[in-house]
């Protein structure tokens, strides 16, 4: 199997040798230009670019999430305090919009210690980067249009700047048609069964949105209808590249959901305190998985091919 062979290659290859290859250089140049295009698109739309934190007393619990397979949530003790390594900047984004920042984005490394068997998916890395953004007062459709435009602009930029690299890789960047189709998770479950996340992208020819996915407390849930106002973006063949939502901001509801999910009320006390004082505000946003986006753009088969220092689950390299 191709992906299995790739994982074996990662284990066998010297880091230096891998970095020195022509294909890796081409991919990393496309990566760099993708970052240029993405950040320019957001900056041109009035977003403020902020840097991430790597340690914090609270981070995304990544729970409950039917798609998650986290085997460890690393903690450090610093200055006599326990801190976690960032799993996503979601809660910091909510704090920022609450404090009055209208549109923000953060290029943020996420540490997610996935189970070893995820090495074979070709799509999981235990360190990866999100372009994580949030818009105060935005609705789902605003985010759909924003992301569609940003992706089209990125492909257009790559078509101009990276001809040589794409020809070295033997592929062409594909400009998707907008607007992308929207499916509910239930529709896909009916059509494909429980494995819809794997099967639907294999049949798709264009990127598509999926809405109403039960997961973490901070995504808005209409408790009466039993519907979540959240969304994922799926790429043909490659699968999920973005997840996001309209957010919860009301204290009672957040507290109810945190308790329901078995998440620690004590750990999130400061965040809950903000909600109790009525300081959290409605917003919507998402995080774009940058490595997965480049994986699709360059049509590689394993995420290790787009990372200079691959962080494949279960494989700790010398660098
Ligand atoms: N970045 C995502 C969001 O904005 C959260 C995540 O990655 N778990 O919803």
Alpha-carbon distance between the termini? 27 Å
- Going by helix content, strand content and strand pairing, the class is alpha+beta
Report the bound ligands by name, code or SMILES: asparagine
Query: What overall geometry do the principal axes of the alpha carbons give?
Result: globular
**CATH overall fold name of one domain:** BirA Bifunctional Protein, domain 2
Write the layout of secondary structure elements.
Layout: H1 2-12, H2 15-19, H3 22-44, E1 48-50, E2 55-56, E3 70-72, E4 75-78, E5 81-85, H4 90-98, E6 103-111, E7 113-114, E8 127-136, H5 140-161, H6 163-169, E9 181-184, H7 185-192, H8 196-203, E10 208-211, E11 221-222, E12 227-228, E13 230-235, E14 239-246, H9 251-260, H10 269-276, E15 283-289, H11 290-298
Parallel strand pairs: 1-6, 9-10
Antiparallel strand pairs: 2-5, 3-7, 4-5, 6-8, 8-15, 10-13, 11-12, 13-14, 14-15
The protein binds asparagine.
Notable traits:
BirA Bifunctional Protein, domain 2; globular; eight-stranded mixed sheet; binds asparagine; three-stranded antiparallel sheet; 319 residues; single chain; 38% helix; alpha+beta
Give a nutshell description of this structure:
The chain has 319 residues and is of the alpha+beta class. The protein is built from 11 helices and 15 strands.
């Amino acid at each position: 199997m191709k992906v299995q062979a790739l994982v074996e290659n990662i284990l066998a290859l010297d880091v230096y040798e891998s970095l020195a290859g022509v294909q890796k250089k081409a991919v990393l140049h496309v990566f760099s230009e993708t970052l240029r295009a993405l950040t320019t698109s957001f900056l041109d739309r009035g977003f403020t670019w902020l840097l991430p934190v790597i340690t914090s007393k609270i981070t995304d619990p990544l729970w409950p999430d039917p798609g998650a397979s986290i085997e460890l949530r690393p903690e450090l003790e610093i200055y006599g305090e326990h801190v976690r390594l960032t799993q996503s900047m979601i809660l910091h984004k909510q704090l920022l919009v609450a404090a009055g920042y209208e549109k923000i984005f953060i290029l943020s490394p996420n540490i997610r210690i996935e189970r070893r068997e995820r090495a074979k998916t070709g799509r999981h890395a235990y360190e990866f980067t999100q372009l994580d953004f949030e818009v105060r007062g935005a609705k789902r459709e605003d985010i759909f249009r924003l992301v569609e435009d940003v992706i089209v602009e990125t492909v257009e930029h790559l078509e101009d700047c990276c001809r040589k690299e794409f020809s070295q890789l033997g592929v062409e960047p594909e400009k998707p048609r907008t607007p992308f189709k929207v499916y509910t998770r239930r529709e896909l479950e009916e059509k494909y069964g429980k494995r819809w996340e794997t099967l639907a992208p294999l049949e798709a020819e264009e990127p598509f949105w999926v809405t109403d996915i039960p997961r973490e407390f901070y995504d808005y849930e209409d408790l009466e209808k039993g519907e979540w106002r959240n969304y994922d973006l799926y790429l043909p063949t490659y699968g999920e590249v973005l997840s996001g939502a309209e957010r919860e901001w009301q204290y009672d509801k957040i507290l109810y959901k945190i308790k329901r999910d078995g998440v620690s009320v004590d750990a999130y006390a400061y965040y809950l305190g903000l909600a109790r004082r009525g300081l959290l505000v409605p917003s919507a946003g998402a995080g774009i998985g940058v490595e997965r986006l480049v994986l699709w753009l360059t049509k590689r088969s394993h995420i290790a091919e787009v990372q200079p220092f691959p962080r494949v689950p279960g494989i700790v390299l010398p660098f």
